Amino acid sequence: MKREAFCPNCEDYRATKVVERTERYKVRGLDIEVPVRSEACAECGGQLGSDEQDKQVLNAAYAKYRSQVDLLGPEQIKDIRKRYRLSQKSFAALLGMSEATINRYEQGGLQDPAHDTAIRACENPEVARELLERRGHMLSDWQRKRMEEALSGQPEPCGTWVDLPGRASWIQAGDEVSDRTGYRRFECDRYVAVVLWFCKKLGMVWKTPINKFMFYADFLSFKTATVSLTGTAYRKAPHGPVPADYGMLLGWMEGEGLLECREVSFPNGNTGFRYSAGPNAPSEGFRFTEHELRVLEKVAAELGRLGAKQVSDRSHKEPAWRDTADGQLISYEHARTLSISLSE
Question: How would you label 311-328 residue by residue, b for 16+ Cβ within 10 Å and e otherwise?
Fold first, then answer.
């Protein structure tokens, strides 16, 4: 069956035909010829192109240019970055470029030859190691640790890539639906939304309590709806329950500008770290269900005014923490004994 499309020349819908031709482009002074296969009006012969088709043709011209002058392709650039387990932001910081520049190159934009040389040099682990030594202070602790592990040959932790829509960064999360995840597959958007909800609701959140807030929210959700809020697995740590990949999730959020961490000095000489929503935090809130909002409000009301030690001490009284071996994952089946309830 012939396809029909609107023809601006005929000012009506017309049957289309496929036209094959060769087009010539000048890319940085070099003539590039690319084969083009497009639609045309079967009656008047007018071209019926689209923005997407134009983009495909341009990408083909860039690809041929890269091949002729020996530049890296978008996937090659991405592979070099991921070899060191870096986000676009961190990779750009090491290279002295902007995050937008790396993003543009990985999306198909034609790179500057000097940038291509710098990126290509990172194929050599010794060059990457030297960059880490010189500019590693510009990375978050989480990203620096991941790169060090990659350079030392340590295998990637068992898990699955989880992408935040619209970004080219990633985190590691267990790819399972079981009693260890509250029978929900880990959802990155949900995790980010819950952390930011607590930050905005309470104004700011101290570093130690945020993990406990997440634990109580997930387990209270499971207790009352038989499914966790975020799909996060929690492990028994000395100071209470923490996400299984402790430090990685919050560190990733901080590195992406979703979360901001500030050091605060107290009159007694001690220091603490508090979180608040970062500059890249979504302006619109996540659409929680009415029940999910009740869970979050309950946890905030119950724990929001407690100090870090008080929150930690309370979590130590939970059978979920007490009855789990050190370092082991906590089963959500313990949620039935959680000290917080929506009925209170």
Answer: bbebbeebebbeebeeee
Give the Å distances, CA to CA, from 339 to 206, 219, 238. Answer: 22, 10, 19
pLDDT digits (tens, 9 = 90+) for 197-240: 999 999 888 888 999 999 999 999 999 999 999 999 998 988 89
Confidence check: pLDDT of 161 > 50: no
Contact 308, 264 (CB under 8 A): no
202 residue type, one letter: L
Q: List strand residue ranges (DSSP E) for the chain, in order.
A: 4-7, 12-27, 30-41, 160-163, 170-173, 205-206, 234-237, 240-243, 259-265, 271-277
Q: Using one digit for the tens of pLDDT, what is the confidence trace for 18-74?
A: 888 888 999 999 999 999 888 889 899 888 866 667 778 888 999 999 999 999 999
Q: What does the alpha-carbon distance between residue 49 and residue 46 come to, in Å, rounded to a whole number? A: 9
pTM for the complete prediction? Answer: 0.56
* AA letter at 330: I
Alpha-carbon distance 225 to 219, whole Å? 10
**86 neighbors 147 (Cβ within 8 angstroms):** yes
Q: How many CA atoms lie within 13 A of 334 on its CB side?
A: 23
Q: Domains in the chain, ordered, with CATH?
A: 4-69 (3.10.20), 74-156 (1.10.260), 171-337 (no CATH)
Hey, what are 273's tokens? 């770290």
